[in-house]
Structure formats: C-alpha cells, structure tokens
C-alpha cells in the first residue's frame, strides 16, 4: 500500500493535468457532434456509398449518415467496421475501400474490441470505439506530461501535439491516427527510460495502428544491433563480443515481426498486398507540396495555406533536428526515414489539411523531445556549440507557437463550419457554368416520407450543444418534360435544392418568413418523371408559438417552386 501511495503521489499531478486537457478535448468533441445534430453515431461519418453491414444496422440501430449514393463519407467508418470483424471473416470487407490497406491498421479496432469484451458487449458500439480512442489519447498524454515534468520542463510542450489538427480531427471522426500517435509516444518514452518490454509491446501496437511506425521500429533495431543505442548512459547491445543477447533481440525485433505476421495474414486473407492499394498516397519527397500550395493561394483557402506552411516547416525542421540530434544520441537517427516518408505524401493525402497534418502530427511530439534531449547535452557540456543551441531553442519555440496557432485556426474551421445541412447533404459535385437559365417548367412534387423531431439527439448535455432541429426525409419528383441539370453559376444562381421557411402565426394570418433554412442539394441530373430522396435537417425558430413550416424546392436566384404552387409541403408546428 505504501508503494502504491508513493506511485500515486508521484503521478497525481500529471493525471490531473492529463484529465483536465482531455475534458477540453471531450468538450470539443461534443461541440462537433452538436454541429452534426447531436448523434454520436454520426462520428464515423458512414455513407450509403459503401453500405453498412446489416448486422450493425439491426443490432446497433444504425443507418449511414450520408444517404446520397454519390457521397463517400469518411474513413472512420472502415475502422469501425473492422473493429467488428477483426479477422475479416464476416464479410465486412465488402463495405471497406482499399480493404488490405485498411485492415493492416488493426491496432485501434483491436483495442476497441477488447474494451467491448470487457464491457460484455456483443458488438463494438460507436460509444465504445470513441471511448477507447479517448482512453488511448489520455494514456499517451499522461506519459508525455510525466516525461516533461520529471525533467523539469513545461507542460506547454504537449499542447502542439494534443491540439494539432491531426489529433483533434481524427478523434472527431474515429480515425486511428491520433491513437497511433499516443501508442508511439508511450513506446518511445518507455524506450528513453530504458523500460524495454513496455517499449516492445506499445511499439507493436503502434505499428499495427499506423504502418509507417515500423520504419522507426526498424531503425531502433538497427541502432541496437550496431551497439549504438545509449539509454540512461548505458549502451544496449544485441550482439557484443561474439555474444548474442536473445532477450534484447526479441524486444527490439518483436514490433517488426508482429507487423510482418499481420501484414502477411491480411495479404493472404484479401489476396492483395496492402502497399499495392496505397497508390497516390506517397510519391517523391515534397514533390506534391508546391502545386497544392499554389492552388490554395489561388483559391484563397486560408486554412490550407496555413496548414501547408506548417507542414513544410515541421517536415524540414524535424529532418534537420533528427540528423543533428542523432549526433548526440544515435537513437534519433531512427526517426529520419519516417520524416522522409511523411514528407512524401501524394495527392490523396495532400488534398486536405486534415490528411497531411494528421500524418505529420507525431512530429509535434518528436520535435520537442529531440530538442530537449539536445538541450540536456548542451547543459552537460557534451556539445560546445552553445550559439547553435540558442538558435535551436528559438526556432523550436517559435515553431511550437506557430503550430498551436495554425491548429487552433483549423480546428475552429472544422468545428464551427461543420453543420448538418451543409456537410451531410451537399455533394459539392454541382458543375460551375457561366450561365444557367431559369427552369421552363417548375412542375414537381415533394412528399414527406418521415419527419422526426430531435430523433437523433443522444449526446450528453444535448440542450447545450445542439440546436432544436428535426430530421425530414423527402421524396422529390420531376414532373416536367425537361431534365433538371446539376449546374450553377459562379455566384450560386441556378442551383437546385430543397430547403424550408418558417412562418409565424399572428392573430389574423401567418406573418412574413421568420427563418429560412440551409439548402440541401438536389445534387444530380433528374430526368422527367424521375424521383430521388433527400434527408433534411430542419432547424427550429428560437421563439415559441404557432408556425407553418414550408418545405419547398428552389432554383437559387430565380424562384421557389411554391411560388408556382408546385413542389412544396406545409406542416403546422407548435414550437414550445
């Protein structure tokens, strides 16, 4: 008991710090889910495009978030499906793109499955999956804070990684990247502290969660094999003076062996090497960056401009530091191949700041660790270049502050701009043309299939994070003799959508419109007599009273269909 009390006293400060920061992360998650309409199951952003296993639909009462067949959703759906079919024997692979490439990242799904078994659940639910992700992040943050505190360093050094767009967005949407970072952080810091079995176990999990970490694991193995691995002022050997240390060999080789065994299983199971399905994910070092940066400037995308600048700076700085820090501690040479890999992202990853920043987020951990290790050597007198050390210090601190500023900007953009009516319904595939003429015939029908008030609000404190809304499924039919074109002018005119207006009742009649809704795109060409379905999220007025909710088709900039007495429905609603 006394030993336990001592452990608690030594670590309670870091546990409190980690818990406090994770509460902030959970609040961000709830805000984001509130912007999605308050349904935590939407965090995986699944799509009808890939479908959903019927077993999960029925047993977990789930439906795809994106019902438009042309919208593909986010990758989080795939890893959630994998968590419910770890060995790929249930046929869930038919609902996953790049199936071998995805299935090699079994780490977070595996941990989620273990957690669900502990909680006696038959399936991995979205709540358990989210909880496991948050728990792994918490563990990584705690170990990081403890590492900083025991060396007398500020907890600020943990902020750039924890609040990086890569960690926050992957937490939002159930991707494994943030968890992979956390597992690697635990493994790497265990290695620095000389706790080799812990390093081996957590590095194995890290490699199974993000395959790129096998490069670092291999680098550490080579450094140890050459007898250059120095931990706590003691050199760690695998082979020395014709003596082979089998224990150290297993410890340092295990992450790679576990990865290879699983890689081969996935290859045989799905009849394809994972690397063969990674086209356009990597190319030559930094060759994709210039074109995407110029495109971001031309289109005035501030978050992309800041994100690409941060990406370039962090890659170059980390590459520079891994070489110079490696001169002080050979262990840091093992990081160099991974930095080169992250700097070699191709078009698929570079298309959005969430892609390349989640891949490089671990550098916000490695950079300060390398800097602090280098700084310790400077103070110990093992490095005489104090002027270089001062420059190193200033560059590192400025880069960390810049990373926090950029990440905060991008997170704010992600949280504040995400809203159900825009993000879950608009396909962004409407063609831009110079001129769109008004429809010659507004003949159309619009029927309400289902209308559920707040049917999906199931997050904690829903009244705080979620505006009053309803889910409305509509069937739209083109009853004219003309095909509806999926086009619009640069200013948005001509855009075909379904939306709504709220009219409040007075003593004599319904007054002028008090609230107009966001547009839900028709999003495709519609032939005469063709029907299509759309899901609308209808926000409610803040004032109570009797209202008429008018749901109508609209050709943006030209006319509402109800003005021609076609393509609309009125619903009486009492707002309390």
Q: What features would you highlight for this structure?
A:
21 helices; 2 domains; 6-stranded antiparallel beta sheet; 576 residues; Immunoglobulin-like
Instruction: Give unreliable regions as ranges.
Output: 381-385, 421-427
Shape, principal axes of CA atoms: elongated
User: How would a crystallographer describe the biggest sheet?
Assistant: 6 strands, antiparallel
Distance between the termini: 57 Å
What does the radius of gyration come to?
27 Å
| Strand elements, count | 15
Question: Helix/strand-derived class?
Answer: alpha+beta
Q: What is the number of independent domains?
A: 2
Q: How many distinct helices?
A: 21
What's the rounded overall pLDDT mean?
84
Share of helix among residues? 40-55%
**Strand portion, in percent?**
5-15%
Oligomer: single chain
Descriptive notes:
The structure is a single chain. With 576 residues, this protein is of the alpha+beta class. The chain folds into two domains: 2-417, no CATH class; 421-575, Immunoglobulins (Immunoglobulin-like, Sandwich), CATH 2.60.40. It is 49% helix and 14% strand. The protein is built from 21 helices and 15 strands. The strands form five sheets. Strands 9, 10, 11, 13, 14 and 15 form a six-stranded antiparallel beta sheet that branches. A three-stranded antiparallel beta sheet has the order 6-7-12, with no helix packed on it. Helix 6 packs parallel to helix 9. The chain is elongated, with a radius of gyration of 27 Å. The N and C termini lie far apart (57 Å). 44% of the residues are buried.
């Amino acid at each position: 008991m006394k030993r336990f009390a001592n452990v608690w006293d030594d670590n309670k400060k870091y546990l409190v710090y980690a818990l406090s920061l994770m509460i902030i992360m959970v609040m961000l998650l709830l805000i984001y889910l509130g912007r999605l309409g308050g349904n935590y199951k939407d965090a995986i952003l699944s799509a009808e495009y890939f479908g959903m296993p019927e077993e999960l639909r029925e047993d977990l009462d789930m439906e795809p978030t994106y019902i438009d067949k042309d919208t593909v959703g986010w990758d989080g759906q795939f890893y959630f499906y994998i968590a419910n079919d770890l060995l790929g024997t249930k046929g869930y692979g038919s609902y996953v793109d790049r199936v071998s490439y995805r299935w090699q990242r079994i780490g977070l799904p595996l941990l989620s499955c273990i957690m669900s078994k502990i909680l006696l659940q038959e399936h991995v639910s979205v709540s358990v999956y989210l909880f496991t992700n948050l728990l792994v992040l918490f563990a990584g943050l705690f170990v990081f804070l403890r590492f900083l505190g025991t060396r007398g360093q500020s907890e600020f050094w943990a902020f750039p990684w924890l609040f990086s767009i890569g960690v926050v967005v992957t937490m939002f949407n159930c991707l494994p990247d943030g968890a992979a970072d956390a597992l690697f952080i635990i493994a790497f810091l265990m290695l620095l502290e000389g706790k080799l079995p812990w390093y081996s176990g957590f590095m194995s999990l890290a490699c199974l969660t993000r395959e790129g970490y096998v490069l670092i694991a291999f680098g550490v193995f080579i450094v140890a094999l050459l007898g250059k691995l120095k931990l706590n002022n003691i050199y760690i050997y695998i082979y020395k003076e014709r003596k082979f240390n089998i224990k150290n060999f297993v410890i340092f080789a295990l992450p790679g062996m576990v990865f290879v065994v699983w890689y081969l299983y996935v290859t045989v199971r799905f009849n394809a090497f994972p690397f063969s399905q990674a086209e356009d994910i990597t190319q030559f070092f930094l060759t994709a960056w210039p074109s995407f940066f110029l495109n971001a400037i031309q289109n005035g995308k501030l978050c992309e401009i800041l994100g690409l600048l941060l990406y370039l700076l962090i890659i170059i700085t980390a590459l520079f530091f891994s070489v110079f820090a490696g001169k002080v501690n050979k262990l840091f040479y093992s990081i160099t191949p991974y930095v080169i890999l992250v700097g070699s992202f191709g078009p698929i990853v570079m298309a959005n700041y969430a892609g390349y920043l989640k891949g490089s987020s671990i550098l916000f951990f490695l950079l300060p660790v390398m800097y602090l290790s280098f700084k310790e050597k400077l103070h110990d007198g093992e490095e005489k270049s104090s002027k270089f050390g001062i420059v190193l210090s200033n560059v590192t601190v400025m880069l960390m502050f810049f990373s926090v500023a950029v990440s905060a900007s991008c997170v704010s953009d992600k949280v504040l701009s995400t809203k159900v009516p825009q993000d879950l319904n608009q396909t962004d595939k409407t063609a831009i043309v110079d001129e769109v003429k008004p429809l010659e015939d507004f003949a159309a029908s619009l029927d309400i299939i289902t209308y559920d008030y707040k049917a999906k609000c199931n997050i904690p404190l829903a009244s705080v994070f979620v505006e009053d809304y309803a889910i409305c499924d509509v069937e739209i039919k083109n009853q004219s003799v003309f095909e509806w074109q999926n086009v619009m002018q640069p200013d948005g005119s001509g855009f075909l959508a379904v939306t709504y207006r709220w009219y409040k009742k007075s003593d004599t009649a319904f007054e002028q419109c008090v609230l107009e809704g966001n547009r839900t795109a028709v999003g495709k060409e519609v032939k005469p007599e063709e029907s299509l379905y759309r899901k609308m999220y209808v926000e409610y007025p803040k004032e109570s009273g009797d209202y008429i909710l008018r749901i109508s088709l609209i050709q943006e900039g030209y006319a509402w269909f109800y003005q021609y007495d076609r393509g609309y429905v009125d619903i009486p609603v009492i707002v309390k």
